[in-house]
Amino acid sequence: MNRFKDKTILVTGAASGIGLAAARRFLDEGAHVLMLDNDEASLKKAAAGLPQDRVLVHVGDTADKATATAAVKAALDRFGGLHILINNAGVAVEGDIMQTSEEDFNRVMSVNVAGYFHMAKAAMPELVKVKGSIVMTSSVSGLGGDWNTFAYNTSKGAVSNMVRAMALDAGKDGVRVNAVNPSFTDTGMTQDMLKDAELVAKFKERMPLGAPEDAEGVAAVIAFLASEDARLVTGVNLPVDAGVTASNGQPPM
Ligand SMILES: NC(=O)c1ccc[n+]([C@@H]2O[C@H](COP(=O)([O-])OP(=O)(O)OC[C@H]3O[C@@H](n4cnc5c(N)ncnc54)[C@H](O)[C@@H]3O)[C@@H](O)[C@H]2O)c1
């Protein structure tokens, strides 16, 4: 497939995990990709083996709105336009509300929510010109609650409704806005969880297609939502969760 030939795609959190898998997928399908991350060393390493004529790395913190403006400008300067934004960079902290410090809460919200806002706001004027689209990585944690994940759940719930609200307004300009909602995926974020055999076994019980998910499988759905194949789809939160949300919450009987 070559669905993204001559398209420019900005992917945040592109040094690792789902963002890196998405960047690779878009490149495989012919796109120009601006890979944005705040981890400079990992970003350069990740981009090293990729087609340099179609890749631009950009270091910045998405919580800082200056990063968003600079990254969009860099995409325009290098590739001449911007067609698709993948809002994906995210952070997680554990803890219930009593264990969550104000500092941790603010950091999670500033990256996972304000960061998505800054990037979308900076990209929209360009996306309107080309009837582009946005895909945001939310989470199953944005569709329902998890135990001991207060700040992260709060932020992903906001992302899930951000796409609905944006989709309603952006439709008149022909811009589509959707989310993927993964469950437990093998990425940098989950390396500690993956070492916990008991926890992995609990996830396997809850995920009919098995656990953990692979980042490439999530990236494939991001690519679908970003593509013309999904031209009639907007405002959707699409679980990419190996079946977790098919459950009503009762235990296996
Ligand atoms: N891994 C999972 O199980 C899972 C499940 C559901 C949703 N998600 C979501 O997927 C997205 C990608 O995470 P991942 O699992 O691939 O983790 P990851 O840690 O492998 O990748 C996240 C990337 O984002 C970058 N990043 C973090 N904060 C940033 C910032 N402020 N500015 C720029 N870059 C920043 C990191 O450096 C890293 O390269 C996140 O939004 C996460 O919440 C992950």
CATH architectural designation: 3-Layer(aba) Sandwich
CATH superfamily: NAD(P)-binding Rossmann-like Domain
Number of domains: 1
| Sequence stretches where pLDDT stays below 50 over 5 or more residues | none
Helicity level, as a percent range?
Answer: 40-55%
Q: Total number of β-strand segments? A: 9
Largest beta-sheet details: 7 strands, parallel
Quaternary state reads: single chain
Strand order of the largest sheet: 3-2-1-4-5-6-9
In what range is the share of β-strand residues?
A: 15-25%
InterPro entries: KR_dom, NAD(P)-bd_dom_sf, Sc_DH/Rdtase_CS, SDR_fam
GO molecular function: oxidoreductase activity
EC number: 1.1.1.-
Enzyme class: oxidoreductase
Architecture overview:
This protein is of the alpha/beta class and 253 residues long. It has a single domain (8-184, 214-240), classed as Rossmann fold, CATH 3.40.50.720. The protein has helices at 17-28, 40-48, 65-79, 102-130, 150-170, 191-194, 197-206, 215-226, and strands spanning 8-12, 32-37, 55-59, 84-87, 133-137, 176-182, 185-186, 213-214, 237-240. It has a 7-stranded parallel beta sheet with strand order 3-2-1-4-5-6-9, sandwiched between helices. The chain has a two-stranded parallel ribbon with strand order 7-8. Helix 3 packs parallel to helix 4 and helix 4 (102-130) packs parallel to helix 5 (150-170). The structure holds nicotinamide-adenine-dinucleotide (NAD). Residues 12-13, 15-19, 37-39, 42, 61-63, 88-92, 111, 115, 137, 139, 182, 184-185, 187-190 line the site of nicotinamide-adenine-dinucleotide.
